[in-house]
């Protein structure tokens, strides 16, 4: 019985997928309606959107649109190590969308 449990646990650990690395994008967006508003922001991306700027834009565009913003471009995709240096520049749009 204990051997069976140990074998099961070993197999589960061996086949478990590794934790996905976090990825983020910095982007520029606009909002129109009276006067033009622009913002620079940082957003966390789902794993499927970390491969390219196009994938990031596809994931981020609808999130921004729901808040009344239009995505202009994805500046870059980066890991958690790039958050601190961009936080002040993003201001209120740091991890907002």
Automatic annotation (TrEMBL):
Record keywords: Signal
Stretch forming the signal peptide: 1-21
The protein's name in its UniProt record: DUF4177 domain-containing protein
Source organism of the structure: Frigidibacter albus
